[in-house]
Amino acid sequence: MAVELVSKPGERSMMLLTRPGTAAPSTIEAMARLDDLGLTVSFRVRVDPGGTIRVADLAIHPTASPAEGAITSRALRGIRLDQLAREAVRQLEQPASMREDVAPGAFQVAGDPSDQAWVSPVPGRRRAPRELAEQAARIYTEAVAKGSRAPTLAVAHELGYSRSQASRIVRAARDAGLLGGRPDQDAEARPQTEKPDPGPSIFRDPAASFPGEAK
Fold first, then answer.
1. How many angstroms separate the CA atoms of 7 and 45, rounded?
2. Which of 23, 44, 76, 84 has its CA 20 to 30 A from that of 187?
3. What are phi and psi of 45, to 5 degrees?
4. Phi, psi of 167 (to 5 degrees)
């Protein structure tokens, strides 16, 4: 299969150890042009400590113009998404030099300042509630600063949780004093619909009158 793949680190990505001596960005944005299938695939890869990868977002478009191209079930079955995701990570992997003198698990990649290092979470370690709330607060605040109308959705995307899970984490961050504002700030992004006037109720004050009714 003829594949042209381009990948780059995701926004707010950090470096993680994928295996001993090798690091990769925690999120990767990639686009693959699959000429044999006539498709262009855009996707986001999340990389966990230890090298476990998962595709978080996916978009598929015909390579030809919408008037000429089509997405067929046969073409969809031909997409090897797992291979594309692994190749996207491989393109951005870098040699890592351990810096245990800085902190346990600390490392550096080419171009890092000599006095700074990355610290990769231990694979399989569950994030503490406070750590998770702090990460959510940072992502939420940055999203709001950039004009996002759905900062909770940004938290869900960055941390790899569902919208409902992200809402609970954001609520915990707010309860912990890490966020200000209204708890329903995301509601501003949702269109408000007016409820229709139900008209006069049959359960009315006997002394009152209907519109147009003489008192």
1. 10
2. 44
3. -110, 135
4. -60, -40
CA dihedral 181, 159, 157, 12 (to 10 degrees): 90
Q: What is the pLDDT of residues 172-187, one digit of tens each?
A: 999 989 987 554 444 4
Q: How far is CA 200 from the centre of its chain?
A: 48
Residues 16 and 88 in one domain: yes
CA–CA separation, 132 vs 67, rounded Å? 46
Q: Is the dihedral of CA 145, 45, 68, 34 positive or negative?
A: positive
The CA-atom distances, in angstroms, between 82 and each of 25, 87, 188, 204 are 17, 9, 37, 65
Closest C-alpha among 183, 152, 149, 150 to residue 165 = 152
| Distance in angstroms (rounded) separating the CA atoms of residues 163 and 156 | 6
Q: What residue has token string 């003489």?
A: 214
pLDDT band at 206 (very low <50, low <70, confident <90, very high): very low
Residues 16 and 76 in one domain: yes
Strand positions, DSSP E, 90-180: 94-95, 97-98, 106-108, 118-119
